[in-house]
Structure prediction request, 461 residues.
Amino acid sequence: MLMKNNLAKDLRKILPKENVLLELEERYAYSQDATNLKEIKSIADAVVFVESIEEIQAIVKVANKHRTPIICRGAGTNVVGACSVEHGGIILNFSKMNKILEINRQNMTARVQAGVIVGELQKQVEKFGLYYPPDPSNLAVSTIGGSIAQSSGGAKTFKYGSTKDYVIDMKVVMANGEVLQTGANTIKNATGYNLGSLFIGSEGTLGIVVEATLKLIPKPETQRVLMAYFDEVEDSVRAVDSIIEQRIYPTTIDFMDKNAIQTVEKFYPTGLLTDKESALVIEVDGFSKAVEYQSEIIKNILKSSGASAIQCSTNEEEYNKIWTARRSSMGACAKLKPNVTTDDVIVPRGNLAKLVLGIREICTRYELDVCMVGHVGDGSVHPQIPIDYRNDDEYKRYKLAKSEIYNLTAKLGGILSGEHGIGSLKRDYIHMVVNPLALDYMRTIKKIFDPNNILNPYKIF
Ligand SMILES: Cc1cc2nc3c(=O)[nH]c(=O)nc-3n(C[C@H](O)[C@H](O)[C@H](O)COP(=O)(O)OP(=O)(O)OC[C@H]3O[C@@H](n4cnc5c(N)ncnc54)[C@H](O)[C@@H]3O)c2cc1C
Prediction:
């Protein structure tokens, strides 16, 4: 208790009173994130809102003095317990460090503070005819710092890559308070180790990202989305191969299985065809003539690959309708039971049909519902499992099914996360896909960067 009082006093010396939250209710609210965890293990000792690099450096000193964890928090929307509290600590809230510091049209870069909202950055750069493609589907709230720390991706990853492909430089406050610059304001950089890559996907365990310089590209003139239905899952995956064989590079090739289609239509009716086994959502972008041309070729390929119905957006309303249906699957699934869990296993695309059918078989065997959506283009699947945590038997079956899904993913040459990260939720399984030597090197890097183990300790492994 004395330690906690002293910690609070030390934090109040550094920060304005209104930026330090100490009430139990406040600390409780920030001790969890968007992960549907069964229980909260521990409550934060303090929640602080940071406004400058100097403040963060001072907080790091305090954390070292009290040997207390620092858990960075963007919007808290990660779904793997990456900022859930397990050993008390200080929540570092970035919502007040949300300035876009520079948009440079000629260099095609943006320099931003870590708390900038991804969707806001996209809106601002588009005013300059530029484009920031990484698009976690909750980009209306998630932050640049959070998406760097989780190496977030999205529907457009297939064509444009994910967050990691757009970060060219960062300022990072290290565990000893030093400020490290990881790169340069250049599009290419072959000058020494790529230190930045260590922080991307590190889930706040190696350093505190305070500023990032991001690469931008020219904004495509227009886009169009097609939705195609299939009676066999395998046909939908084969259709994707045929599209790529024709040298067409869609922005997005997403997937919904029958349960996802039916559940979305049940709660958010938009006229989806509920008797179909699967649907593909395919987006193309570029100049309007090219988009027109590609859409026609794709439609023909889909038909000859066995698509039994095809819808194609011809205006913004139709475009939004298809995307709303695809993006509503998690919300719809959440209506089936008091809790819903999601995941993001990924395999080489050639094994995707096996993964989807295997997950369905596992869930059927354990008597669990599952709605599957995913990004076929890059081989990733989000199995969304509605569950009632109060039902111990169901929870036991769910845990067994999860373990089998990870096993299957590993057998198919896949990994546990393509975009959500590992956090606390999947750390017990990481050994299934990362070899022991690689894990040892990761632990060694963690010790070198953070010898007192204060940065989001015990996450990932
Ligand atoms: C409805 C929904 C849809 C989603 N869709 C997608 C999707 O399409 N693609 C995808 O990839 N993810 C998705 N996610 C997962 C998640 O939203 C993303 O990973 C998101 O980018 C996290 O951003 P955030 O600001 O909420 O980070 P938070 O959840 O606040 O933090 C995530 C991690 O980053 C660390 N962190 C935060 N800020 C910093 C910083 N400045 N320095 C160092 N570490 C930091 C935290 O400690 C934590 O470990 C979705 C989540 C939800 C709830």
